[in-house]
Amino acid sequence: MTDGALVLFSGGQDSTTCLAWALERFERVETVGFDYGQRHRIELDCRCNLRTGVTDLKTTWAARLGADHAIVLPALGQISQSALTRETAIEIGDSGLPNTFVPGRNLIFLTFAAALAYRRGLKHIVGGMCETDYSGYPDCRDDTIKAMQVALNLGMERRFVLDTPLMWIDKAATWRLAEDLGGAALVGLIVAESHTCYLGERGKRHDWGHGCGACPACALRADGYRRYRDLPPA
Ligand code: ZN
Questions:
Q1: Least packed by Cβ within 10 Å: which of 28, 111, 117, 207?
Q2: What contacts 112, CB < 8 A, 6 or more positions away?
Q3: Ligand 1 centroid distance, CA of 165 (Å)
Q4: What fold does the segment set 2-230 form as a domain?
Q5: Rounded to the nearest whole angstrom, what is the distance from the C-alpha of residue 4 to the centroid of ligand 1?
Q6: pTM for the complete prediction?
Q7: For residue range 109-129, what is the model confidence (pLDDT) as tens digits?
C-alpha cells in the first residue's frame, strides 16, 4: 500500500480544490467520479478539463496525477427521491433537511471509493465534505466520516485515512485555499471549468463561474466568492 491518494472528484469547486490539495501532498493521485443520474451530471463533463487544467499548472502535479475512474450507480438515483435526481423544486423538507439530500450518498461513495482504493493500493481517500457549509447533510459531518473510516478499515482490514481538507472551512476559505495551492491560475481554472449548480445549468458566466445563480449551491458558491474577493453582498 503506497502513500497515494484517491480523490472523490465530481468536477465541482470543492472537489477540484481537494484534488489540488492532494497533488501537493501525495506522490500518486488518482480520481473517481460517480454517476447516479444527478441532474447536475454536467459536472462529470467538467472533470476532464479540470484534470488537464491542473496538470498545466505545476509539473509536479502533472507527474503525480494518475488514472481517472468512473463508477456508475443508477441504483442510487432509483431509490432516492431527492431534488438532485428528480425534476422537483429545491426546498427544505419536514425533516429540516433540504430535499437535495440523497440519503446515505456519501456512505455509498466512500464504500465504493475504498473498494477501489483497496484494489489500487492507495492509502488516502480525499473528499470535499464540509460540516460548516453543509451541516444539513448528516453524511458530510466529521463524525460520520470518522465512523466510516473505522468501519472501512475494520471491514476491509486496511489502514485507510479519510482526508477532508474542507471540513471546517467555509466557501470563502475554500477559494483562499485554492489560491494558496495553485495561485490565481487555479482560482481561474475553478471559476471557468468547475460546476456547482444543482440544476445542471452552465448558463451565464458570472464572476464566480457558470450556473443558474439562484439554486442553493449557486448561492453558496457566489456568496463565498464575494467574501473571498471582499466584494459587497449581492
Ligand atoms: Zn444553480
A1: 207
A2: 32, 34, 71, 73
A3: 24
A4: Rossmann fold (3.40.50)
A5: 34
A6: 0.90
A7: 999 999 999 999 999 999 999
